[in-house]
Amino acid sequence: MSVTATQKRSVGAVLWDYLTTIDHKKIAHLYLIGGGFFFILGGLEAVIIRIQLIKPENDFISAGFYNEMITMHGTTMIFLAAMPILLGLMNAIMPLQIGARDVSFPFLNSLGFWLFMFGGLLLNCSWFLGGAPDAGWTSYASLAIDSPGHGVDFYVAGLQIAGAGTLMGGINFLATIVNMRAPGMTYMRMPLFAWATFITSVLILFAFPALTVNLFLLMFDRMFGSAFFDVALGGNTIIWQHLFWIFGHPEVYILILPLFGLFSDVFSTFSKKRLFGYTAMVFATMLIAFLGFMVWAHHMFTVGLGPVANSIFAIATMAIAVPTGIKIFNWLATMWGGSITINSAMLWALGFIPSFTIGGMTGVMLGSAVADYQYHDTYFVIAHFHYVIVGGTVFGIFCGLHYWWPVMFGRILHEGMGKLTFWTFFIGFHMTFFIQHFLGLMGMPRRYWVFLEDQGLDLGNLISTIGAFFMSFAVIVFIINIFYTAAKGERPSPDPYDGRTLEWATASSPPPHYNFAQLPLTRGLDPLWIEKMEGNGKMTPAEPLGDIHMPNGSILPFLMSLGFFIAGFGFIYQVDHSAWYLALYGGMAFALGCMVVRSFKDDHGHHIPKEELEREAD
Amino acid sequence: MPENTSTNSTVKAYQKKKNKDEMKKQLIAFASMIAFTLIAFGIVATESVDKMFLIPIIVIMAVVQVGFQFYYFMHMKDKGHAMPATLIYGGVWAALLTLGGLGLITWW
Ligand code: HEM
Ligand SMILES: [Cu+2]
C-alpha cells in the first residue's frame, strides 16, 4: 500500500500537488477531469439542440443562439472532450503497458494538459463575453469571416492554444514509445493500445500543423486585415476547407484509433485468448493512418472540384473500409471459442461492434461521390458521424473507463450501475441517431434552427429527442457511480480481471508513482499471461533493485499556459482598443519569461532510495 | 588499474580522431549550405539565368540542403536512427501527398 494514499492531506496540498504534478498518472486524472467537465458541457448543449428540435417550428431558443449551440457542441465534444479524455487514457495506461516509469518528457506532458485546459476555458469564456462562435465546428471561412462580434475570434485563439497542447502530447508519446520500452518489449510485443497510441500520435504530429496554419490564416484575416479567404479582395475561401479537412479527416481517425487498440485489449482479456491476427491488426492500423491522409476531399464532394478529383477521392475513401473490416473480423475471431466474461467493460466493447459497423457502412455510402450530392449537409451525415464517433469513440471511452478504473483510481466501478449506464445509453443512442438516417434521406438539412410541420419529420425528431434523454440519464447514472465508488467502492487487487499485459503487473492498485520498483522483463506478446502460464504468476525483474531517479514537479507549465491565455484575450480584443496590446505583450512576455526560467534553472530531479523501495515492498 | 590505461588511451585517441572527422564533415556541410544559399540569391538577384533553368536549379539546391540538414545536422546518417528516419520520411510523404492532391485538383 502506498504511503500517500493512506495519509489524509489538506485540500490545499492536494490542489498544489495537482497544479505542479508531472506524474503521467496524475496528469491523466487531470485530463479525465477536464475532458469530463467539457463532456458534460457539450452534452448539455446537445440536449438543448434536441429540445429545440423536439417539435416543428419550436422557439425554445433563438436562431442565433442555436447557431452558437451547434458550433460549441461540435467544437467542445471533439477538441475539448473526446481528445483530452483519450489523451488521459493514453497517459494513464500506455507507459505502464510498455513498462516505463513515466513518459519521456514529463514537464512537456504537464504543459500539454494546461494548454488544453486554458484553451478550452478561453473558448468557453465567449459565452459570457458577447456570444460564442457560430460558424459551425468546421468554421468555413465564408461564414467565419463575416461572423459579427468576437465569437469566431475565441474559436481561433482557444483552439490554437489547445491544439498546441495536443501536439505536445503526441510528440511526447512518440518519444516515449520509441525510447522507453522496458527490456524485451519489442515493437511487435506491444499491446494494441500502445500501438494505437503510437500511430495516433503520428497522426497528431502530421495533421495538427494543417489546423495550426489554417487558424493563423483566419486569425490574420479577422484580426489583422489580411485577405487569404476574402474573395472580394482576391482571396479564396476554399483554401480553408482544404486545410481544415486535411487536418479534419486524420482527426476523425485520431478519435477512433486509440479505441480500436483498447477494444483489442479488452476482447482478448475477457475472451481469455490471444488477440486473433495481432500482426494484421498492427498493419491494418498503419494502413488506416496512411490512407487517412488521402481522403480529405470526401468532405468537399459538392464544392465543385470536378469529376476526376471526386472519383479519385471516392475510391481512396472506400479503400479505408478494407483495413477497418479486417479489424472487425479479427475482433470477432478473437471472441470465437474464447471463454467470455461479460461485465460492463465488455458490454461496451460488444455494443461497439454493430454500432460502429453501421457507421462504417454509411461512411462507404457517403464515400460514393454521386450519392453524396443527395446526402451532403443532411441529417444522414449527422447520423453517420454520430454512429462512428459515439458508437466508436464514446463507447470506447466508457469501456476504457470501466476497464482501467482500478489502474487509474484503485477502485472498481459498481457493476450494476455500469450495466444500467450501458443499456440506457445503448438504447438511447440508437433511438437518437438511427432515425436520423431517414430524416436525412427525407431531406432534413443539418444545422437548421427549425423544421416545418407535416413534412414527415415530426415523429422522427420527437423520437430522436427522447433518445437524447435516455443518454442523459445514462450519463447521470455514471456520474453517481463515480461518487458512489469513490466513497464505498471495493479496493481491487492490482490484477482484478486476470489481465495479460503490464498495466496489471504493478505492485499495487493504483500503481506506486514510480510504476515499477524494478523494470519487468518481457518475454513475448501478453507478457503477464506468459508468466502466469509458466507458473511464475508475476513478472521477472530485468534489473536489480536500486535507487530510482524521478523528475521534480513544477508550477511553470501552469504559469506558461496562463500567460498564453491572457495573450489570447489580448489578440482577440486589440482590434477594439489598443490598450489590449498590454494583455497581448504582457501575456506573451510572461509565458516567455517562464520558458527562460525553465531553461536556465537546473533541476536534476530526485532519487527514491533503495531502502524506501524495499520498505514499500512489504 | 594500470593495465587499463593503455587501452583507455587508444580508445581516447580513436574517439578524438572520430570527433575530428565528424567536425570536418559538419563544417563542410555547413559551408556548402551557405554557398548554396549565396548562389541561389546570387542568380536571382543578377537575373543571369533564364527562368526555365532558374527554378529547377533552386529546387535541386533546396533538396540537397534538406538532405544535409537531415543527414548531417540531425545525424540521420548515424546508426540507430531508423525510427526518426521513418517518421521524417512519413512526414515528407504526407506533405507530398497533400501537395500532389491539391495540385491535381487545381490543374487537372
Ligand atoms: C472511423 C471513424 C470515423 C469518423 C470519426 C468519421 C467522422 C466523420 C465526420 C465528423 C463527418 C462530418 C463532417 C462534416 O460535414 O461536418 C464525416 C463525414 C464523412 N465521412 Fe466519416 N467518419 C469515420 C469513418 C468513416 C468511414 C469509414 C468512411 C468511409 C469509408 C467515412 C466517410 C465519410 C464521408 C464521405 C463524409 C462526408 C459526408 C458529407 O459531408 O457529405 N467516414 N465523417
Ligand atoms: Cu473524412
From TrEMBL, chain A:
Residue ranges of domain Cytochrome oxidase subunit I profile in the record: 10-523
Topology in membrane: Multi-pass membrane protein
Gene3D superfamilies: 1.10.287.70, Cytochrome c oxidase-like, subunit I domain
Places the protein is found: Membrane
Assigned keywords, A-Z: Electron transport, Heme, Iron, Membrane, Metal-binding, Respiratory chain, Transmembrane, Transmembrane helix, Transport
Any Pfam family the entry gives: COX1
InterPro entries on file: Cyt_c_oxase-like_su1_dom (IPR023616), Cyt_c_oxase-like_su1_sf (IPR036927), Cyt_C_Oxase_1 (IPR000883), Cyt_c_Oxase_su1_BS (IPR023615)
Record flagged with keyword Metal-binding: yes
Heme recorded as keyword: yes
Membrane-spanning parts: 30-51, 71-93, 105-129, 154-180, 192-219, 239-263, 275-296, 308-333, 345-367, 379-405, 417-439, 459-484, 555-573, 579-600
Superkingdom, taxonomy of origin: Bacteria
Family: Belongs to the heme-copper respiratory oxidase family.
Name of protein: Cytochrome c oxidase subunit 1
Protein's organism: Virgibacillus alimentarius
Native organism taxonomy: Bacteria, Bacillati, Bacillota, Bacilli, Bacillales
TrEMBL record, chain B:
Membrane topology designation: Multi-pass membrane protein
Keywords, comma-separated and alphabetical: Cell membrane, Membrane, Transmembrane, Transmembrane helix
Record field: transmembrane: 27-46, 52-74, 86-107
Region (Disordered): 1-20
InterPro entries named among the record's database cross-references: Cyt_c_oxidase_su4_bacillaceae, Cyt_c_oxidase_su4_prok
Compositionally biased residues, Polar residues: 1-12
Protein name, entry field: Cytochrome c oxidase subunit 4
Species of origin: Virgibacillus alimentarius
Lineage, uppermost ranks: Bacteria, Bacillati, Bacillota, Bacilli, Bacillales
A Pfam family recorded for this sequence: COX4_pro
Compartment(s): Cell membrane
